[in-house]
Specification:
The chain is mostly helical. It has one domain. It is built from eight helices and two strands. The protein has a two-stranded antiparallel ribbon with strand order 1-2.
Length: 282
């Protein structure tokens, strides 16, 4: 008896079995040369190391995760708000407006409050003998890590502080509290602290983590900015409580600091993205 040939099964009636790769998807069964070697439709080998994958700014699956940070519109909005507030305070100081008189009443209630030794210590955090050596050490570390461009940008950012603050002091000629001396607006100590500690944090964030610290669990991405903010805040509080500056002098420098640091922040972000794309993810 002659056997009837069994018809070939199609993929629709094959029933349960091993999954088959479909052409036109991520994989194709044969290459362009017809060798039959599996390959990806985007030209990459089947198993691309994670560190060699292309970086997608949107962070889609299969790419190197983007460097964490605030969205650009949010940062631009905050900087714009700080610029408007700084301009408003400067205008009120220049014309001796109602905001200036309110500032003097508030300051008179805050002066010489708290332990004098502690407020003096906080005030000294913004002095050049304290804040500048911190930045110099960070810049030396950046040069040792061969980040010359980043170090130069941070140094120029620090140099911008006296270039901006001194003309404002002379133009406004505001009299200081508890003294007859003038040129107290804005606070130079607060601006120095904001830029010196802020620039140090931005430089450290931009540099790749040393090999011996890559396994550390402590989150450097938020510790250094928080430390810079705390040191700058403590400086301003100490200056007001000790009677060295009016509150608006300090508030204006708190607004000015991020504006001066904005170009360095952009450079730091770009350096972090380049370092992240070169370093394999864990």
């Amino acid at each position: 008896m002659r056997e009837t040939p069994r018809p070939r099964e199609t993929s629709a009636d094959s029933g349960p079995g091993l999954p088959q790769h479909r052409p036109g998807r991520a994989f194709a069964h044969a290459g362009a040369d017809g060798s039959g070697t599996p390959h990806r439709s985007d030209g990459r080998p089947p198993h691309t190391p994670r560190g060699a994958r292309r970086t997608d700014p949107a962070g889609h699956p299969g790419t190197t995760p983007p460097v964490p940070g605030w969205p650009a519109p949010f940062v631009s909005g905050v900087l714009g708000l700080l610029a408007v507030l700084f301009a408003l305070i400067t205008w009120q100081v220049a014309v001796e407006g109602p905001l200036l008189r309110l500032d003097e009443r508030v300051g008179a209630r805050l002066f010489e409050r708290g332990p004098a030794a502690l407020t003096q210590l906080f005030s000294d955090l913004g002095g050049m003998p304290v804040a500048l050596p911190v930045l110099v050490c960070v810049l030396g570390y950046a040069l040792w890590r061969r980040a010359l461009g980043l170090a130069v940008c941070a140094a120029l950012t620090m140099a911008a502080v006296p270039a901006l603050v001194i003309p404002l002091k002379v133009a406004t000629a505001r009299q200081g509290p508890l003294t007859e001396a003038v040129n107290y607006y804005p606070s130079g100590h607060t601006a120095t602290a904001a830029v010196a500690y802020g620039a140090s944090a931005l430089v450290l964030l931009a540099l790749p983590r040393p090999a011996w610290l890559r396994g550390a669990s402590w989150p450097r991405t938020w510790m250094t900015p928080v430390a810079a903010i705390l040191l700058t805040t403590a400086t301003g509080i100490g200056l007001v409580l000790h009677g060295y500056h009016w509150p608006l002098d300090v508030l204006a420098s708190w607004c000015l600091g991020p504006l001066v640091l904005a170009p360095l922040g952009w450079v730091s972000c770009r350096s972090r993205r380049r370092s992240s794309s070169r370093t394999p993810s864990c």
